[in-house]
Amino acid sequence: MFGTTPRNLRRLGSALLLAAALFFIGAARGQGDQDVADEGQSVEAFPIPEGHLTAVYADVAPRVDGVLDDRCWRDAARRPTATASGFTYRGLPYLLWADEQTTVYVAYDEEYLYIGARCEVDSADDIVARVLTRDAKLWYDDMFEVFLDTFHDRKSSYYFAVNPLNTQMDGYLSEEGEVENRNWDGIWYSATKINHDSWTVEMKIPFRTFRFGMFNDEWGVNFVRFHKHDEDQTVWRDPGENLFRVSLFGTMDAPPRRQKRPVVDVQPYVSGSYRDLAKNEKYEFDHKEGLDVAARLLPSMTVVGTFRPDFAQVEADPYRINLTDEELFYPEKRPFFLEGQEYFETPILAFYSRRVGDIEYGGKFIGRVGPTHLYALGLDAEEFLEDPENPGGPHRFAFTGARVKQDITEHASAGFLGVRRTGESWRNNDALSGDATISFNDEAIFSGQFLHVDDGRTGISDHGLDLSLTRYTSGLSLGAGYADLGPRLDILKTAYIPYDDVKGYWGWADYDLWLYRWGIKKLNANVDHEHYHNHGVIFKTPPTKSDPTPEDVHRLQREGAAGEVGVYFENRITARFLAEHNYRQETLRLIALNPFHPFLPPVRVFPARERFANRYYAGTIGYNLDEWSSAYAFYEWGEHFDYGLDYWGGGFSFNPFSRLTLAYDLDYEVLTHPKARYEFIINRLHGELNITDELAARVFVQSSSDHGHYATNALLSYEFAKGSHVYLVYNEKRLFKKHVREEIGRRLLAQMIFLKVNYLLGL
Q: What is the pLDDT of residues 530-546, one digit of tens each?
């Protein structure tokens, strides 16, 4: 797995000396941080439970400034059970101590959990820290991360991470990382400090920020550190190939005096806006007031309510070119939907929150009782429909949903989901779903789901079935499945179902060969294949006396095969080549006179031919793709149905300095036909400036030749108190196609200035 670099030779030497090192573990663990343990102080001598921590009680709360000089850290250094050390390299087949060690201290009081960490480095010059955007991909930098399995179910965990610049990242994962919600945002505090031989971290996490088991005596816990200079990951407890394998985490005594009383967070807001819309031919001034409330009734149960929320500060969706017959999927960005979003991550997505329009009011409940997970949602929203039977709008709809999931064992769970959408002019549109997941040996995972839909307005009912078996490793990964999605499954108005009327199978394989020699870091190859027929009958011929069993003809609905190879060089260059073929089947019905006798029934002939719907070939080259600053270019060619395809583009992102990030992407596609030619050009420019830790500016500009306009979205945000913000937003759309401008009579299509202030009150 490793090449013969000096660092790896040093690791090999460490491995050979491992047996000798084991005799000195106790002494090494008793060695305190120079910042937290005075020279000459003795350490209590008693056995350390393997992989188990007990946080010390902080009589005096530490000052969160990144310096580990508070009383609670000195107390933790004296108690080995409150100290996590002995970090090893992650994912190796043998135990190997980290060259740059990390020492973690754990403390608590009634309101907060405190984490202190000292991350040793050979030199402060080796520290990599450039990212300043919250929830950005901090693994591009040095990073320290805490995982907390607060229900101790060995499946789910919150995570909290910081880089040396004190940029925060957090999220929630379940099913041992199979489902991850990076959009979960908690309110917590941290500080860091860079020293000549280390960088130190202090975290202050309120118990009210996360849910936890009220009667749990233990929590799962793990600590992970990213060393970007050496591309290493070191861990307190090695989870193996899967960093999110919660079942292999260590444990910690649940703080006995943790806050369990009900808490309420109230966040009112006021906003004002100015709009100039070409279609209205007038200016509009508007104001709006709203309220968000989050109440934790019990430590494991939360109720969230919202009234007239305004999400104008959320960034616009990027323009994208779609070469498939599937609907594009856009991730949810509105804060109300983010917590608990993972409950709807089922194989068939029966509730796609982007279907919900502007919310008037709503609420949701998230709770857990032992192994039972509960989620309920109710919303009243209005939206414009692109429906010829129900044009215009806005129309008001009520959305309700409930999800129950039961952990049967540590490796098996089952769930049920019900969703309803109803409106003034549309009767109940319902879905019921059952799903199950079983994992084997922490590698193979079986999942299945059955979905039934009913529409009260049309009387249409249909169903869908999805079964899959997957296996993930750092080498060979495999997956296969069967899907049966009915021809009218799209009648469900709350779902994301990219295609329906299919019945068939799919499979894929992916292989990584880690070389670390000849300048090559890794070789990758993957293949996938899908084959689906439709449900219905293309031609159904009634039986006759001469032909009592006529042939009913079905059609190949979709079939695809793709293969890709990639080379990842140690000089950070990546090259990939893709070939993909998609097929469809055309069926013709021909009727001819019987050649043996003209009075006999005619002969029915159903010739079918498979044809290429698409043939794509693509090459991609990139540099530094695993870093925040990177560049890439691609070229794709082939046939798209009856058109010739030329599609190329590229982009880059870079940090001129640590507080500024710039990124640009270009897509240019040409479809050619003997009688027609279509050209699509999309430009996207994104800039983000972190003026201070609380004040940030963002600009997103994109243009589309298809839309004939470019759009600008600019945001200035200021967090004047934790969880409280001022947002100033400017949006506009301007036409750049001359004939469109002449048709509308103006260049400016839309313009908006928006100001919003919210304030978080904790009760």
A: 999 888 765 555 555 55
